[in-house]
Amino acid sequence: DSGVTQTPKHLITATGQRVTLRCSPRSGDLSVYWYQQSLDQGLQFLIHYYNGEERAKGNILERFSAQQFPDLHSELNLSSLELGDSALYFCASSYGTGLFPPEQYFGPGTRLTVT
Amino acid sequence: GQQLNQSPQSMFIQEGEDVSMNCTSSSIFNTWLWYKQEPGEGPVLLIALYKAGELTSNGRLTAQFGITRKDSFLNISASIPSDVGIYFCAGQNQGGKLIFGQGTELSVKP
After folding, report:
1. What local confidence, expressed as pLDDT, does residue A49 receive?
2. What are the DSSP E strand ranges found in A1-115?
3. Mean pLDDT for chain B?
4. Which residues of A touch B103 (CB under 8 A)?
């Protein structure tokens, strides 16, 4: 158990809908990262938050947004969902800004299925 | 952008065999991390390497940070069925970003 929690575990929704994925980092960690993992792809970095502020953006679509709250939990919002958004979404956390130590600890993921 | 070439993509081995996989890049990295992902789970950190030339073990796993800082390898000795999963390397670049390899899928036949 990494100490990172994600809810829900599974989510099934229809095209065009909007969903919110939730992540709680390990106790003491200030950074939260979101990743997307599709069947034929590796881990695609989406976005990084540190202590409530956005630090880095990866290949995140404009239909997706995220935020980190004062209690350090984070939410990833996916809107106008398309079939191609079906994937595993992982949250990871780290102690600092990610520079050092660089280790990221992953949650169990949310499996999103868009029908 | 920066890319990590992880090989092989997949391996099918017999229980008891040793396994070797590696990651290479044309770019220099400050840190190398190795993760294992089992089906339906999130990646779990196995080993972290911080210095060029560093060799670190974790049980039957041994990983090395290449002397050029552009590569790393992971060895698993005497494989067992529970070693099955996808192994990812990740390199931290000069800007602090973590870049992941595409993964090596390991299958172990009892």
Report:
1. 96
2. 5-7, 10-13, 19-24, 31-37, 43-50, 53-57, 64-68, 74-78, 87-94, 105-106, 110-114
3. 94
4. 42
* CA-only gyration radius of chain B, Å: 13
B96 has pLDDT over 90: no
- Residue B83, classed as helix, strand or coil, is helix
B96: which chain A residues are within 8 Å (Cβ-Cβ)? 97-99, 102
Q: How confident is the model at residue A99, as a pLDDT?
A: 82
Is B49 within 8 Å of B65 (Cβ atoms)?
A: yes
- B85 is written with which tokens? 């999963």
What is the model's pLDDT at position B33?
97
- Integer Cα distance of A44 and B91 in angstroms: 14
Whose CA is closest to A66, among A83, A48, A87? A48
Query: Which is nearest to A42 in space by CA: B90, B77, B71?
Result: B90
Size of interface A-B (CB pairs under 8 A): 50
User: Are A106 and B42 within 8 A, CB to CB?
Assistant: yes
pLDDT for the residue A96? 86
User: How many other C-beta atoms can be found within 10 angstroms of the C-beta atom of residue B59?
Assistant: 8
pLDDT at position A4 over 70? yes
